[in-house]
Amino acid sequence: MRRTKYIFVTGGVSSSLGKGIVSASLGMLLKSRGYKVTIQKLDPYFNIDPGTLNPYEHGECFVTKDGAETDLDLGHYERFLNQSTTKENNVTSGMIYKKVIDNERKGNYLGKTVQVIPHITNEIKRRIKILGESEIYDIVITEIGGTVGDIESLPYIESVRQLKWELGEFNGLVIHLTLLPYISFTGEVKTKPTQHSVRSLMEKGIKADILVCRTEKHISHNIRKKLALFCNVKQEHVIESINTKIIYDIPCLLHIQNFDKVVLKHLNLSTVIPPNLKKWKSFVKKYKNPKYKVVIALVGKYVSLHDSYKSIIEALIHAGTKNEINVNIKWVYSEMIQDNNIQKYFEGVSGILVAPGFGNRGIEGKILTAKYARENKIPFFGICLGMQIAVIEFARNVLGMKKAESHEINPHSSYPVIRLMKNQKNIRQKGGTMRLGNWKCVLKEGTKIFSIYGKKEIWERHRHRYEFNNDYLENFSNFGMKAVGINPDTGLVEAFELENHVFFLGVQYHPEYKSTITKPHPLFTYFVQVANGNIDSQSYDYKEKNSMYGG
């Protein structure tokens, strides 16, 4: 009987060192060798999920196909592994403690005093092992959020200690990602913070098997030797993770150091099959050597933290690289846009993307943006709220409904062209109650979006409460704003196209969540090509019909 192997990725010295990218890179390397791999994120915060967090707190909220609102690292996992994740791939302390408390209220602990050990740690271990026990995966990589020494992370570290012992030799592995600061004044790379971090891990009963060292300078042989000696690891188990402008370089940089081979040997797994990195290297080469350049304006209200739109950024990169186009994103804060200054924000821009969001801040600037793109024939792509913005603008300035609004902004609007969904009206709790995950959409034949996808039925991921008000559908259609994508079960409009425009598309769903390196999303691919002006938008036919966008 095959036994699943478990890899645990911990962090030390500082947060935001890139555990998610290292985990995703390792997962990609192991998968390219033929192993079935998945990656899981354990987050120590007490929110049940990041769905109610401001993007400035935690970056983008990524949505899985089964409707879980998760950490943005799951986006990295999907993009690097080119496979979907589920709700089981993201666990928070909020989930863990809620489950334990619910069990206690049901009397499941038979009168025992409920404690961190064993009840919390047992629930953490159960969550870690769920993916492995499905017998789908050969290897489960578990990334532990936070850093060693954080109070919040202690139950997770203890759970890893217990689980590694329970799994036995060759079945568990701990990778510790740490920082080697460079002191420019003396020109030295310092190892002391890493030594203290490893010691802190050992004090909690865990020995790091492999060190991955984040650094801005290459690690010398002597530094590796010193780290091996003081951190009690083999010298070949000291892996450099040097700063790079391109995150897609990281898997290859780690592979050159035999990172994946070291991991497999430690887990007593075969290294006979070499990794197939041909497509990956081709992508990186094209990314670094574009033939064209295009400027896309990304209009939103969280633009000061780019991680708020991480999946959109990566989807534009995937689409640009596929077409050998360097996509230069111009970040535009929607609250600053006014009638008298709008031209300066979009001067030299070849395409405009209005990003998703919630609330009324910056809404009027987004509406002005949609108007500007419509009137000046600039390729326009609206996602979720971006589609709703396009609808409001069209109602106000083409249909003459000057007070057209969304119920989200004005519940008493005279022209509520965007309204709260019927099944949302009695919902009072905010967390996890939106329309989430994969939903079917039927595309209208003969439309631009149909030719882009190359199929009639698609499945895309959603995250919203409000929808287009179908009472106005006929009026919109008569004036050239066509509903070109409909949910067959509810009649909800999923996509609008504007006639007689080079490209003016709004979608209620989030196509960015499905874009990967080897399968760029067709909508982004088309949008970037139109912005670059190197295709005939009237006769475009997306030939690479991809099952990923059908389910």
Write down the CATH topology of the largest domain: Rossmann fold
Uncertain stretches: 536-548
What's the architecture of the largest domain in CATH terms? 3-Layer(aba) Sandwich
* CATH first level of the largest domain: Alpha Beta
Description:
- With 551 residues, the chain is α/β, with parallel strands linked by helices.
- It folds into 2 domains: 5-282, P-loop containing nucleotide triphosphate hydrolases (Rossmann fold), CATH 3.40.50; 290-436 and 464-535, Class I glutamine amidotransferase (GATase) domain (Rossmann fold, 3-Layer(aba) Sandwich), CATH 3.40.50.
- A hairpin with a 6-residue loop joins β21 (481-486) and β22 (493-498).
- α1 crosses α9 (250-256), α4 crosses α5 (116-133) and α5 (116-133) crosses α6.
- The radius of gyration is 25 Å and the shape is globular.
Topology:
Elements: E1 5-11, H1 19-32, E2 37-43, H2 55-58, E3 62-63, E4 69-70, H3 73-81, E5 90-92, H4 93-105, H5 116-133, E6 139-144, H6 154-167, E7 172-179, E8 182-183, E9 188-189, H7 192-203, E10 210-215, H8 221-231, E11 238-242, H9 250-256, H10 259-266, H11 278-288, E12 292-300, H12 310-322, E13 325-333, H13 342-346, E14 351-354, H14 363-375, E15 380-383, H15 385-397, E16 404-406, E17 415-420, E18 435-443, H16 448-453, E19 457-464, E20 466-468, H17 473-478, E21 481-486, E22 493-498, E23 504-507, H18 522-532
Parallel strand pairs: 1-6, 1-7, 2-5, 2-6, 7-10, 10-11, 12-13, 12-14, 14-15, 15-23, 16-17
Antiparallel strand pairs: 3-4, 8-9, 17-20, 18-19, 18-21, 21-22, 22-23
